[in-house]
Amino acid sequence: MAVLPILIHPDPRLKKAAAPVADIGSDLRRLADEMLQTMYDAPGIGLAAPQVGVLQRLLVMDCVKEEGAAPRPMALVNPRVTWTSDETNVYEEGCLSIPEQYAEIERPAEVEVAWTDLDGQAQSERFAGLWATCVQHEIDHLDGKLFIDYLKPLKRQMITRKMVKLKRELARAG
Ligand SMILES: [Zn+2]
Questions:
Q1: Contact 72, 66 (CB under 8 A)
Q2: 142: closest CA among 61, 77, 73?
Q3: Cα separation of 151 and 174, whole Å?
Q4: What CATH number belongs to 12-173?
Q5: Which of 64, 95, 141, 159 has a CA between 20 and 30 Å from the CA of residue 35?
Q6: pLDDT at 67 > cutoff 90
Q7: Could you report the per-residue pLDDT of 8-20, keeping only the tens digit for each?
Q8: Residue 63 Cα, ligand 1 centroid: separation in angstroms?
Q9: C-alpha span between 171 and 136 (Å, rounded)
Q10: Ligand 1: centre distance to CA 138 (Å)
Q11: Is 110 among the catalytic positions?
């Protein structure tokens, strides 16, 4: 099973809206498996297909954090938020495409999300806590939106400059 390279911001592919998945077949299931592997390896709790350069509406996540608890790998195809709570929550967010940078972001505390699973079955679930933050962060990726887009321009530009420098260093290290 392959670990996929994760795109680092700034990258034009991270700013584009992803296309709906039309066909749920073995290629998509394989991509979801590889994305989960990549996410666990990073390690992270969520990963959206555009982050590995695939502009399709697919995300994976597993927000189980308790020591010794069973993992809950999820793959959501064409997910959409169908309800949001009025109550909000602030979490310190990070992103595998923006390494080592964190910021407090306010989002609805609970969301209901509808999606198609890898067997083609319609699913929906209400998410709270870290799961709610994570699924909203990942769905944003499918719309070409990053968590730093919620920050004030100055803070966003500072982070972007750091990422440009990091990418230059990574390229040099080859
Ligand atoms: Zn992210």
A1: no
A2: 77
A3: 31
A4: 3.90.45.10
A5: 159
A6: no
A7: 999 999 999 999 9
A8: 14
A9: 31
A10: 6
A11: no
Lowest mean pLDDT of 58-62, 64-68, 87-91, 155-159, name the range.
64-68
Distance 129 CA to ligand 1 centre (A): 17
| Cα–Cα distance measured from residue 112 to residue 108, given in angstroms and rounded to the nearest whole number | 10
Helices (H), the chain: 26-41, 129-142, 153-173
Q: Which residue out of 93, 104, 138, 169 is catalytically annotated?
A: 138
Domain residue spans in the chain? 12-173
DSSP-assigned beta bridge partners for residue 111? 84, 127
The mean pLDDT of 143-162, rounded to a whole number, is 98
Q: Over the stretch 29-41, which tens digit does the pLDDT of each residue have? A: 999 999 999 999 9
- Write down the pLDDT at residue 173: 87
User: How far apart are alpha carbons 118 and 19 in whole angstroms?
Assistant: 17
Provide the residues around ligand 1 (an ion) whose CB is within 5 A: 95
Q: Which helix (H) or strand (E) holds 100?
A: strand 98-108
Residue 79 has what pLDDT? 98
The pLDDT value given to residue 30: 97
How much is the pLDDT for 119?
97
